[in-house]
Design a protein that fits this description.
There is one protein chain. 44% of the residues lie in helices and 15% in strands. By secondary structure, the protein is α+β, with helices and mostly antiparallel strands. The chain has 2 domains: 68 residues, Phosphorylase Kinase, domain 1, CATH 3.30.200; 186 residues, Aminoglycoside phosphotransferase (APH), C-terminal lobe (Aminoglycoside 3'-phosphotransferase, Chain: A, domain 2, Alpha-Beta Complex). Strand 7 and strand 8 form a beta hairpin.
């Protein structure tokens, strides 16, 4: 096995595990660096980390705060990315721990996403439509009517070429000494900004993070819907044009995607959203 530079691939050799998620593990990897190593099932599904690295480098080159990428390597057949270690809790932790700063943090959150959407996605990046179609296709046969509805609605929505994160929420911004840094880029795609905004709002409304963590802003669902999300959308629109009607249509597509491929704990909330929208659930 070789790394991206052509040298022999290292093993983990007792590297300290710092964090573990559904898709990847984070290991300490030398001074000031970490290795984000895909799990075997994620590696089999995704193949490599090329699009993720391309998205991070494009964002970094344009001044969007992301961890610096140093190398792409393979360990025991699993692809990984060597990147900057960001010491600090998430923006979600900061909002919960310092609620008096919620509007300041929400403004910065929206500013970073709006800046990201001003960038063109790197060549060859998966389109948001393609990614959404693949997820909607996973709906089982007993939800075929909803699958057809989602496919039809997706086909009516305009495409785009902006760089989208795909999983942009306050748990994926770490609070470094220099300010928030955007992490976790495997869902990056090329598409219309409204698709990313819709997914962000949906994740904040219904998302349930792994390992039993309390959800960011999760003091009560009412706070998320009536305080954070409207402020987030207003701050975003102050930085970049936003078609609210398109956001609403993408919200339904995003809810169908999450129903098909998201955590089981979100199902009841997603079904409520889809019923309210009049979809065939």
């Amino acid at each position: 096995m070789v790394n991206a530079g052509g040298s022999a691939s290292p093993g983990l050799d007792g590297a300290r595990l710092l964090d573990s998620g559904a898709e990847a593990e984070i290991y300490e990897w030398g001074e000031g660096r970490v290795l984000r190593l895909l799990r075997e099932d994620a590696a089999a599904r995704r193949g490599d980390t090329g699009p993720e690295v391309a998205a991070m480098r494009a964002a970094s080159d344009a001044g969007v705060p992301v961890p610096g990428v140093y190398d792409v390597i393979e360990v025991d057949g699993r692809p990984g990315i060597v990147m900057d270690r960001i010491d600090g809790g998430s923006m979600g932790d900061a909002i919960v721990g310092r609620p008096w700063q919620v509007f300041k943090l929400t403004r910065r959150f929206a500013e970073i996403q709006a800046a990201l959407h001003g960038l063109a996605a790197p060549a060859g990046m998966t389109s948001t439509h393609e990614r959404a179609a693949g997820r909607i296709a996973r709906l089982p046969d007993d939800e075929a009517a909803l699958r057809r509805y989602g496919e039809g609605l997706l086909g009516e929505l305009p495409a785009g070429e902006a760089l989208l994160h795909g999983d942009f929420h306050p748990l994926n911004l770490l609070m470094a000494a220099s300010g928030p840094v955007v992490i976790d880029w495997p869902n990056a795609s090329a598409g219309p900004p409204e698709a990313d905004v819709a997914m962000t709002a949906l994740l904040i409304e219904v998302g349930t993070p792994p390992n039993g963590m309390p959800f960011v802003l999760g003091l009560i669902g009412l706070f998320r819907r009536r305080v954070f999300i409207p402020r987030y959308l207003a701050y975003y629109a102050a930085n970049r044009p936003l078609d609210r009607e398109l956001v609403e249509r993408w919200r339904i597509v995003c809810a169908i995607q999450r129903l098909a491929a998201g955590p089981p704990g979100e199902r009841s909330a997603l079904l409520a959203i889809l019923r309210e929208a009049g979809t065939p659930v």
